[in-house]
């Protein structure tokens, strides 16, 4: 299974994400933001966390216009898988590949701690856990307050596209949303960091299950 990880100036979770994919048995290629193509045979694109372009304008807004985004759009349009984590989720909403926006946290503070999450929507990403399961993952962001208009929120919920919900919202996100899926369920954006919960040395391995399941399912496909 082949994963490509986009790297922007200011990305800081790209190597952690590569380590998580590699530990699950994936081939990983890092792809610089100025590249205009993904490696042939890419199954999944990882859009990592961090502070792309210093979070200027809005988090993810400049990265969403980088040369590599055309290849990301083509990959998603072909039905390819995409996993955007934290700044990666912000990039995905800024590109329009996922609906809504990530606003400043309700209390205006950067939050760095482990939170409880309930797993919901059906997808290759969430099958690792099963609907209704509660897990814990770290968050680290100042713009994680998910916003969408009421119709979009109703649609996401009606179509089972809320992938993860906070058991108690840390950042003011509407309807406690921590992660959402695209219409075809192959693009996931989530604020929590599964790649930071992959090794017993990190004190939590809830994230490793997501990568292991993805790698197994995409290798078998
Ligand atoms: N860890 C991250 O990816 C942080 C994303 C973004 N820079 C924020 O603080 O909201």
Automatic annotation (TrEMBL):
The active site is at 86 (nucleophile), 193, 195. It catalyses: L-glutamine + H2O = L-glutamate + NH4(+); N(2)-formyl-N(1)-(5-phospho-beta-D-ribosyl)glycinamide + L-glutamine + ATP + H2O = 2-formamido-N(1)-(5-O-phospho-beta-D-ribosyl)acetamidine + L-glutamate + ADP + phosphate + H(+). Its EC number is 6.3.5.3, 3.5.1.2. PROSITE patterns: GATASE_TYPE_1 (PS51273). Keywords: ATP-binding, Cytoplasm, Glutamine amidotransferase, Hydrolase, Ligase, Nucleotide-binding, Purine biosynthesis. Pathway: Purine metabolism; IMP biosynthesis via de novo pathway; 5-amino-1-(5-phospho-D-ribosyl)imidazole from N(2)-formyl-N(1)-(5-phospho-D-ribosyl)glycinamide: step 1/2. One of its GO terms (cellular component) is cytoplasm. One of its GO terms (molecular function) is ATP binding. GO terms for biological process: 'de novo' IMP biosynthetic process. Pfam families: GATase_5. It is found in: Cytoplasm. Part of the phosphoribosylformylglycinamidine synthase complex involved in the purines biosynthetic pathway. Catalyzes the ATP-dependent conversion of formylglycinamide ribonucleotide (FGAR) and glutamine to yield formylglycinamidine ribonucleotide (FGAM) and glutamate. The FGAM synthase complex is composed of three subunits. PurQ produces an ammonia molecule by converting glutamine to glutamate. PurL transfers the ammonia molecule to FGAR to form FGAM in an ATP-dependent manner. Part of the FGAM synthase complex composed of 1 PurL, 1 PurQ and 2 PurS subunits. This is Phosphoribosylformylglycinamidine synthase subunit PurQ. It comes from Citreimonas salinaria.
